[in-house]
Amino acid sequence: MDSQLRSLLNVISCLIVLCSLAKVIQAIHEDQIGLHDWSLQFIGRPIEVLLSASQSGASRSLVYTYTEQNVLAAIDVNYGEIAWRQVFENNANGTISSAVTVGEEICVLLNRGRSLRCYDSLTGAFKWEKWFGGKSGNSGSCVGITKTTESPKDANRIVCANSDGMYAVNTKTKNTLWDVRSPNILKRYAFASHSGELVVVGINQDKLTIKRLSSETGEAKENDIERSVSIDPLRSECRLVQPASQVSPFVICYNAAQRQLLSQSSGESSREPHLISVHELGEFPVEGKNVSLQNLETDGLFSLSAGGVSLLLQIHPNGEIKLVQRFVGSVTSCSGTEVLALEVANKRATLGTAAFDSRGFTTVSLTSEPFSFPSAYGNAQRAVFIPRKDSSCAKPSVLFWSDSDVIGYFTQGKILWQRDEALSTIETAAIVDLPISDIEALVEQEFEEKGSFIVRFTKRLLSQALQLKKFAEVIVRRLQAGLRTGKFFQKDQLERDYFNTHKIIVGITGKGKIVGMDSRNGNILYSLQAENLVSPKDRPVQFYLQRTGAHAPFPSQAVIVGVDKKTGDGVLFFFDCVTGEELGPAVRMNRPILQSGLIPVMTNDHLEAIFVLDEDLNVEIHPALDSAETAEFLTRTLHIFYTDPRTGVTRGFRVKRMNQGWKAVELWNSTLVSHGESVVAVAPKRPHDAVHSQGKVLADRRVLYKYINPNLVAVVVEGLDDVKKPYLKMVGMDGITGRVLISQTYRRARGPCQLIHAENWLMLSYWNEKVRQSEINVVEMYRGFDKPNKTYFSSLESHEKPNISTASFRLPGFVDAMKDSVTVEGITYKDIIVALSSGSIMRIPKFLLDPRRPMIPTQAEREEGLIPYAPELPMVTENIINYYKKAYRIRGMVTEVAGLESLSLVFAFGLDLCFTRVTPSALFDVLSDSFDYWILSVVMLVLTVASVIVRNLANAKALKHAWK
Amino acid sequence: MMEYPLKYAQICMVLGSLFQAYAQDIAKAVSISHCLESEIKLQCEKLTEFSIQSLRINQTQTFSHTLTPAERNQIERASNKNELYFIRAKLDNERDSTYIQSFCKATDIVDSSFVLGVILNVDAFGRPYAVEVGPVDPADRRLLLLPEEPSDGTLLGLVTVLGSQSAPTPDVEGYRKKLQREQAEKKAAESSDNRSFLSKYWMYIVPVVLFMLFSGGMQGGPQGGG
Amino acid sequence: MDLLHLLLSLTVVTGTNFFSSAQNVPAKDPSPSASSSDSDLYAVEGKLVYVKSHDTKFIDGVRTKIALDGGEYFGFLNEDRESFTVYGVPPGSYLVEVYHPEFLFEAARVDISSKGKIRARRDGSEGGAGQNQLAYPLRLKLQRKATYFQAKEAMRITDMLMNPMVLMMVLPLLVMIGIPKLLSQVDPEASREMQSTLNMASQPMDLSSMMSQLLGGGAPPPKAIQSRKPERRERKRSA
């Protein structure tokens, strides 16, 4: 009996658990892929572009590139799409120093020159890897040598040189043919001269070494050439240039420390190096960072470029370097005797060729009409000639990229495609509403409550007449457009749709580039560059929406807060986030900015003001609010919270009006960081965090009230304890009074951490050093069972401390970014969206991350619906919201409300972009897509017909029966 | 109403250093002062000093400070004007510009008859990093520690030191034990139910038998009659 | 006073959001780490265990990546589509995962001692001992194909028919209509009997009459009106 009851209870509890777990598993249907979500993949800014070794077959239209973001990719030049890409490690292990195409493969040298990985050029499949090992050096370089004879000893090989030595690998058998160990060189280059000799250049802080080896055996043919020069190996570049066919090649190095070009003959060991300062050659932005030295096919020519300026230089057989021409743009070879120059001037670019022979240099002749090169592209960094069937020096096909991360392909006289790789460097993003349509604006106006009732009545009638007129206009316009293009029902303007799910995604990169994307498909609607604005060193650019699109005739204004590129002082840039136009001049301050934020005071045109706190504790407000009552309001209510990331000093300020300006007065002060610690994350709540219920209803009908403090700010600090083990500390303080409400220490834990703060809980994901796994700690705050007798919260009056309830869970994977979903009213459950390093973005329902989950549930807890505690969070693949697509290296996520209560929009940015929607409680407020109208109507029809027929039959039968 | 638990014992503290310049300095004492609002810089007056050694976590110390009539008037005026009352703590090895500070409404102080409830938060190294001040509820048990009764002439203070909680780790052991226990229970349940078939299911067999008897009886009855 | 408190509660609190330490940014080594006491680096080897078939044809070198500690070190699948090696791993404890868009493989934990001894153990906290030793070189089994979608809930006729309410109503109906018809074709006497029992069932049943029937076995007390109809029918049929 007892056991039966127990088993019955078990069955019931299992059912309850299953039912509650049923909420856990919820995914889209297979035919809904791409309906409401999209994802874009990027590669980053190219370092080098290589052409396929075999110019035949399907790989003809592919060019290969490796980028600053540690990505190796193949781009199809016909369409500008990524044919395949391989994303390597996000640290120095995956940094690519050099790439070589040999046969059907492309090989990259990674990991500080220690690892060679080869991939199939057509498909990107991994072929083989060679580990050279050695001490962790700096970088290396490889050169591919194709076999010249048919003898069995000769084979295609790759020779790589890194800080430890030189290695030659047979690409067919993957064996090491020979290796020469020669450590203690900081940087090495391997070059193959025209005569087939291998020239290896090694640079140390004070020495330049040139070795000449046989590429078959690795033996040194002659003695090394050593020269003492003062050179900075890490910022310098070297190349091998042959001045003329019978002259031994010269090694030319750009010495960044001395801003000089150095040339040393590799053949004649007695010659001294020639040094020439770049300054003497021509006007060149030497402080530019990406200085690159490139060979050209023509003997003796090479180019030095940086900051959009290229110097075409020639080396003479005696070692002297002379300037041939200076270009604003980039220069490359298109054939053995001609060079191709891409010149940019006044936002237009031209391509020209110039022939070069022993007599000299003929002037550049234009090959194309000027094509537009907008300022959003920045400076042209490199151009590469793509030799194809229809491409020649006269009608070139050129792949170029700019320092603003735009890759473009120019062919047949126009730019065929361009890729904006700046989208892979987005640091801050926001999802903004579209403006309401004119008709909606009129509807809003209709209900303004100003004036007597007659006035309002007439206003309503007028407004409705206007609405009718506008509606008719819209219909006529759509008909006309439809007749013209054949597409009716097409929205021509950007307006809110019925459920407010169509939004604009604004992405801001660290270099001040602002991109607006359509949330339906990821198309770029606008792209603008804020001049001279970059992100501050310790945080990303801040974005604030001053006016939403709900106030229709006024533009939807947003402001970004960054610093000046040169001076580091604060800069405010105002723009319309729907159309991308700059609104008004940028405000340039003369001090660095500490803190900025929005003030909930609206001007007459519905603009929320923004305040900026600078280093001298001056507060500026834009637009200036001068009225006495706003001044009074601000003095009483504006409190600013600021944590200095360097010193960890956290302060709270109030503002005071002083001499026509505002000054910040310190109210409280804490030092959260002591010696050796650093601030890792700061998280306030969202400004309009909607909490729908005041507490949780327990099984015995008591209410456990939540402690909701809208002024709570959580700060996470990382440090080393006295036994040198890392630890994290989370401090939750009231932002207005500085009172510490939560103080938790995580032993043996370290970052990277992600912190979420919403409603009455905090979540921190961190790395547990002891068990070496990712964990999430949830902290919930309750105030007990006493009903609070106030409906608002005041930090000054509240002296109580919350009851803290906390638990930790293990995560199946490594967290790159984490965010909670938001909805309009806050009724829907919350989902925690986690971007894992495996490329999947997973959603975890909040009720799995509940500290009150009991180990052994009692009857009351089971009734309440609490799931029993399990230390691991389940990895449910149905909860992966980007299904089989992968989004790597997610840097951050933004979640936003939509018009529907059950929907939350999610945008993840990083190397890849991904936008999707999440329905944490299933789509409860609209009819779902899988609602089968067809079968339902058929069944209804059949039942109706059947009931009519049967009724007739029954009547007939009854009649017949009555006649008996 | 203060909702955190209170324990009474000795308070002790060990300090680390705050800034590079004072890298090897260990603070020996923390001084507490109170300030009232005036222009930009606050005018602070020292109330008391505690030695770091004497600060122990979760324990309360007291101090008393005689209020001059001028001071009392200042506080009462601040309370009438709805101004704020600040408290500042400073470590003796720091520069004057380094301190921790917090505030509350001046009316709170006056309403609680000049009894201050001060909380010092210390980190894992025992160094105070935040301070807090507020009124003391008349029902608070810490008031029993006060050496004298609250009066208009003295400012009494209760200084409690709070530390940091240790965050929990996933309870893997407990979960494993629970699973083992459940498995054992399941095994026991399976093996213990070995009574006879009839004695287990008599509840279901008897009504079926009765039903069959009745229906047989009914059929038999009318057939016999008709 | 209250208004003041109300306004005070509308205060604006802002905070700064930092990125965590530069682990999210591709770090380029700015200085040669010649001073890094480079312990020796080892290679982690292993094999993926699965049945090579048409369904698993996409486990190849393009889509598969083996990651140590979430991407600190990567290894790729060799041309035999089974074995992999991760090079350049310093001593420590690492989680080995297989990243593939379609399939889930089991994960393992690998400990590399400072002398270079590599041990593998099972990763996880559930069930038995968490320190189960695994074979090294690793053998990672294919667990399952990842399902990302939910099957659509289509409305099917069977759903309607299998509804217990429908079954409870429809089946007895069919039985009541169908069986007499069948029987009447087979055996007219049996059908008459069925008719009589049905008529019996339609009589009002009270406890006393039922009990007397059961125990006495006599004829039921005739009800004048009702008994005429079946008699009439019976007479008609027999006539």
Topology:
The complex is a heterotrimer of chains A (964), B (226) and C (239).
Chain A: H1 2-22, E1 38-40, E2 46-51, E3 62-67, E4 71-76, E5 81-87, E6 98-102, E7 105-110, E8 115-120, E9 126-131, E10 141-145, E11 157-162, E12 165-170, E13 176-181, E14 187-192, E15 198-203, E16 207-213, E17 225-228, E18 237-241, E19 250-255, E20 260-265, E21 274-277, H2 278-281, E22 292-295, E23 301-306, E24 309-315, E25 321-333, E26 338-345, E27 348-357, E28 360-361, E29 365-366, E30 371-372, E31 380-385, E32 398-402, E33 406-411, E34 414-420, E35 426-433, H3 438-446, H4 453-485, E36 503-509, E37 513-518, E38 524-529, E39 533-534, E40 542-545, E41 557-564, E42 570-576, E43 587-588, E44 593-602, E45 608-614, E46 618-622, H5 628-637, E47 639-643, E48 649-658, E49 661-671, E50 678-683, E51 695-697, E52 703-706, E53 712-720, E54 726-734, E55 740-747, E56 749-758, E57 761-768, E58 773-784, E59 803-810, E60 815-820, E61 831-836, E62 841-845, H6 859-864, E63 890-897, E64 904-910, E65 913-918, H7 933-962
Antiparallel strand pairs in A: 1-65, 2-3, 3-4, 4-5, 6-7, 7-8, 8-9, 10-11, 11-12, 12-13, 14-15, 15-16, 16-17, 18-19, 19-20, 20-21, 22-23, 23-24, 24-25, 25-26, 26-27, 27-28, 27-29, 27-30, 31-32, 32-33, 33-34, 35-36, 36-37, 37-38, 39-41, 40-41, 41-42, 42-43, 44-45, 45-46, 46-49, 47-48, 48-49, 50-53, ...
Chain B: E1 29-36, E2 43-51, E3 60-66, H1 69-80, E4 84-91, E5 100-105, H2 106-111, E6 115-122, E7 128-135, E8 154-162, E9 165-166, H3 172-192, H4 197-225
Parallel strand pairs in B: 6-8
Antiparallel strand pairs in B: 1-2, 1-4, 3-8, 4-5, 6-7
Chain C: H1 2-8, E1 42-49, E2 65-68, E3 73-77, E4 83-89, E5 92-99, E6 103-105, E7 108-112, E8 118-122, E9 133-134, E10 138-145, H2 157-161, H3 164-186, H4 188-202, H5 207-216, H6 224-238
Parallel strand pairs in C: 1-10
Antiparallel strand pairs in C: 1-4, 2-3, 2-5, 3-4, 5-7, 6-10, 7-8, 8-9
Hey, roughly how much beta strand do the residues of chain A contain?
Answer: 35-45%
Give the low-confidence spans of chain B. 1-24
Q: Specify Rg of chain A, calculated over alpha carbons.
A: 34 Å
Shape summary of chain A: globular
Helix content of chain A: 10-25%
**Considering DSSP H and I runs of 4 or more, what fraction of the residues of chain B is helical?**
25-40%
Number of helices of chain A: 7
For the secondary structure, the number of strands of chain B is 9
Number of domains of chain B: 2
Radius of gyration of chain B over alpha carbons?
36 Å
